[in-house]
Amino acid sequence: MSKTLSVAVVGAGMGGLAVAGTLRKAGFDVQVYEQAQRFFRIGAGIQMMPNSMKVLRRIGIEERLRQVAFAPYSHLNRDGTTGEMTRELAMPESLYGAPYLCMHRAELHDALASAVPADTIHLGKKLTGLDQKAGR
């Protein structure tokens, strides 16, 4: 008889929720603990390159992100002083097998949170220490 491994994720930011969503897909029992009392719409835009989108696809949130994101044709690098374009990298989905998407950080956070059952996210919980007992 095998026992499901239980994992506590400390922090419900984008990284913590991505880890929680990934571990749940792998069959782990995951609980997420976040010190904030609620989630806020903070931040600005974020770019998700094709390799990142392949991870988000496996978590199961790609389609949700496609509904709120913008898919530019290319990634541009510009000189910060002059604005002169120094490089353009085409990003067609057909070339990389996943889209290049731009979105607001809050949209990505909302999508990641949707991949984790709400009753496994515990808000208002601050980590104050860790105790290891009997291998746990």
Structural features:
about 140 residues, alpha/beta, FAD/NAD(P)-binding domain, two-stranded antiparallel sheet, elongated
The residue-averaged pLDDT reads 92
Q: What is the second-level CATH architecture?
A: 3-Layer(bba) Sandwich
Structural category is alpha/beta
Cα radius of gyration in angstroms: 18 Å
Strand order of the largest sheet: 1-2-7
| CATH homolog superfamily | FAD/NAD(P)-binding domain
Strand count, sense and closure of the main sheet?
3 strands, parallel
Give the strand content: 15-25%
* Total strands: 7
* CATH uppermost class: Alpha Beta
Number of domains: 1
Helix content range: 25-40%
Indicate the low-confidence ranges by residue numbers. Answer: none
Give the overall shape, derived from the CA principal axes. Answer: elongated
Per CATH, what is the topology? Answer: FAD/NAD(P)-binding domain
Give the terminus-to-terminus CA distance: 19 Å
